[in-house]
Amino acid sequence: MNLPTNWHGKIDLVYTHSDGKTEIKSAFCQAPLKIQRAFYPEGNSICYSVILHTAGGIVGGDILTQNIYLSPNSHVLITTPSATKIYRSEEKKATQEILIKLENNSYLEYLPQEIIVFNKSQFQQKLRVELGNNATWLGWEIIRFGRSARGETFTDGQWLNYTEVWQENKPLWIDRQSFSGDSQLFSAVNGLADKPVIGSLIFISSNPVEDFLPFIKELINRKFNQITLGVTTLQQGILCRYHGNSVSEAKNCLITIWQLLRKKQGFNSLIKPRVWL
Predict the structure, then answer these.
(1) Containing H/E element for 161?
(2) For the whole prediction, is pTM greater than 0.90?
(3) Burial class (CB in 10 A: 0-12, 13-18, 19+), 32
(4) Which of 11, 177, 184, 200 could form a disulfide with 161 if both were Cys (CB 3.0 to 4.6 A apart)?
(5) HSE of 45 in the Cβ direction (CA atoms, 13 Å)?
(6) 99 pLDDT higher than 90
């Protein structure tokens, strides 16, 4: 397979809100990253955006950067059209840095589809979110280690993931994850225990969220049997962690939680981005 190497992809997005409509004010794209035309399945107040990676996958040496800015009162949902593949690399590391800045009273739902981490891949992602007053961020991430359908496990390589959420120069959520294929954590009981899929959903808001927890737990227990899901409160939000064997199960679980959180905040809980269908 002849894949391009050493992409330096970049995407800069600026959203504004005026006259009841959120829209993209400016968009700079550098291959292989690209933005689709915005669409509005819920009306003008919520702008749906799809970020494309046109190269088909990420290889060692790639450097990808996303800068996303929401002006006051903007409401945006960002997703991707399909899974992101991290291809094997013997030496070079692929990196992705995402900087998100939300101004006062803005709301971002950052919901990319799953990442498939191939065996022998090297990947590092840094995500930083900066919140203004009364800004809300809801993000998730779903990771599959190895191509399980082919019998592949993640026994060689490295995956690093740093997530930070700040407000007024104060940290609200700092998460550091590191996984090396040769560390035996893939099969260890205190690691992945041979279950290759993990997922996280983080919801951070200035409004009280503690009352949402019982509803989340009751809904998950009712809809999913024998699922491994942890739900806890953060300093100003909620954290949900999935661990299992199925990307589909992880997605269905996190989508169910996302829909509940939307309903509790008075948003439409039935509409999903069309690229998920």
Answers:
(1) strand 158-167
(2) yes
(3) buried
(4) 177
(5) 8
(6) yes
